[in-house]
Write a structure and sequence with these properties.
The chain has helices at about 30-45, 65-70, 95-100, 115-120, 140, 150-155, 160-170, 175-180, 190-205, 210-220, 225-240, 245-255, and strands spanning about 5-10, 15-20, 50-55, 60, 105-110, 110-115, 125-130, 135, 170-175, 185. The protein is of the alpha/beta class. Helix 1 (about 30-45) links the parallel strand 2 and strand 3. Helix 6 packs across helix 7 (about 160-170) and helix 10 runs antiparallel to helix 11 (about 225-240).
Length: about 260
């Protein structure tokens, strides 16, 4: 399937979505936005995909929406594709990513700013090149940060640091982003693809049904107290313990071999 302004690949259970507008530092176009929605929806239903990597082509991860298109009102996602099929646009891409039960890794190859940073924040794990830079630039353009930053940042870096980043629009480097907890880890730029691939491969080999249910439990648990959460996970645990993956995992342990999980 063709995804405009996106390079999409699948291999060994790992899907990779590369934003492909390097001449525009991968700023969002309506076509790119539609492609991103479609990909997240598609991989959610694709049993062959166990993890999604999001990255950018060229020297930037993503710099958000183009200011000119925001100013003249031309930035609007289409409601239909060329075949007339409708997309689900009633929820944000960030919520769609969180509802997707497949792990999503941001492989941040360069600048992540504004809505581009918010896209990275919506991923489950963030691996950054040591050349990456980060900024919530909305304040400098007089724009309200609607891309989820006001939700994700306080949870990742704390309220005071989130306020500082959002209210100043200051750019920080990868080392500072790792120090404050904005990214999971930083690696040398030339090792970014390898490091991301190694982590994705490890996740892809793990029990997919457990991963999907635990992702759901983690994000649902953010809205619950401990007692409610422990009650919530009981049926998930029973489901897992009745699965073929559970049986395979225990057999493999007893037989002293690596398990082969099928997500059933």
């Amino acid at each position: 399937m063709d995804y405009q302004d996106i390079i999409f690949t699948k291999e060994n259970g790992i899907a990779t979505m590369t934003m492909n507008r390097p001449e525009r530092m991968n700023a969002f176009s309506p076509e790119m936005t539609d492609s991103m929605y479609r990909i997240v929806e598609d991989i959610s239903q694709d049993n062959e995909v166990r993890v999604l990597i999001i990255t950018g082509a060229g020297r930037a991860f993503c710099t958000g929406a183009e200011v000119r298109s925001l100013a003249d009102g031309t930035f609007r996602g289409r409601n239909q594709d060329k075949t007339g099929d409708s997309f689900n646009r009633s929820i944000s891409i960030h919520l769609l990513m969180q509802r997707c039960e497949k792990p999503i890794i941001a492989s941040i190859n360069g600048t992540a700013a504004g809505a581009g940073l918010d896209l990275a924040l919506a991923c489950d794990i963030r691996i950054a090149s040591d050349q990456a830079r980060f900024a919530e630039l909305y304040i400098r353009r007089g724009i309200f940060p609607v891309g989820g930053g006001t939700y994700f940042l306080p949870r990742l870096v704390g309220i005071d640091k989130a306020c500082q980043l959002i209210w100043t629009g200051d750019m920080i480097d990868a080392k500072e982003a790792e120090r404050i907890g904005l990214v999971t880890m930083v690696v040398p730029h030339d090792e970014l693809e390898m490091a991301t691939g190694e982590l994705a491969g490890k996740i892809a080999k793990a029990a997919p049904l457990v991963i999907r249910r635990t992702k759901r439990a983690i994000y649902e648990g953010l809205q619950m107290n401990l007692e409610t959460h422990l009650t919530y996970v009981q049926p998930l645990m029973r489901e897992i313990h009745q699965s073929e993956d559970f049986k395979e995992g225990t057999r493999a342990f007893l037989e002293k071999r690596e398990p082969v999980f099928k997500g059933k």
